């Protein structure tokens, strides 16, 4: 019982600190010029950011590229969604992800780092759900499955970059 109470206290602390504007994100190292240094998929991040040093701009560029690729993946999923399975799940999740990504772009303009993180986390969940659905679909197209994996990695990079955005 005390372990659960301790865990709940720690979670509550982090949520409260995040909402009150205390930076709980990974800090930018002074003098660092590569925002992608915080990402798990650095090569992919750098190929999208293309040398952008401004954190807000790098995050926005990454989100916009993710949106473009999500639209293409949604078009590809549209052809196979009638057969059901993973493609049907991905098709509907891509709509939700696009809505969250659009909200994230607005969050950057409003300097709302807290909501930015929430919307990017939600979009990452949508891509994860799609990946899970494709993993269970034995008839899935390997090219589409690779695309789904790339979208997940890009969403993860966007979320990592968003932790550097000033609140």
UniProtKB/TrEMBL annotation:
It comes from the Eukaryota. GO terms for molecular function: enzyme inhibitor activity. Pfam families: PMEI. Keywords: Signal. Residues 1-25 form the signal peptide. InterPro entries: Invertase/methylesterase_inhib, Pectinesterase_inhib_dom. Residues 27-161 form the Pectinesterase inhibitor domain. This is Pectinesterase inhibitor domain-containing protein. It comes from Microthlaspi erraticum.
């Amino acid at each position: 019982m005390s372990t659960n109470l301790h865990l709940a206290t720690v979670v509550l602390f982090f949520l409260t600190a995040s909402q009150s504007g205390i930076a709980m994100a990974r800090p930018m190292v002074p003098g660092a010029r590569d925002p992608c240094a915080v990402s798990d998929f650095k090569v992919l991040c750098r190929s999208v950011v293309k040398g952008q040093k401004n954190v807000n701009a790098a995050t926005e560029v990454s989100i916009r590229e993710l949106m473009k690729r999500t639209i293409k993946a949604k078009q590809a999923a549209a052809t196979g969604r009638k057969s059901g399975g993973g493609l049907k799940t991905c098709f509907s999740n891509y709509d939700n992800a696009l809505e969250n990504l659009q909200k994230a772009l607005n969050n950057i303009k409003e300097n709302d780092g807290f909501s930015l993180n929430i919307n990017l986390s939600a979009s990452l969940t949508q891509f994860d759900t799609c990946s899970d659905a494709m993993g269970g679909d034995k008839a899935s197209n390997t090219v589409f499955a690779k695309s789904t994996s790339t979208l997940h990695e890009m969403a993860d990079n966007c979320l990592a970059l968003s932790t550097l955005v000033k609140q």
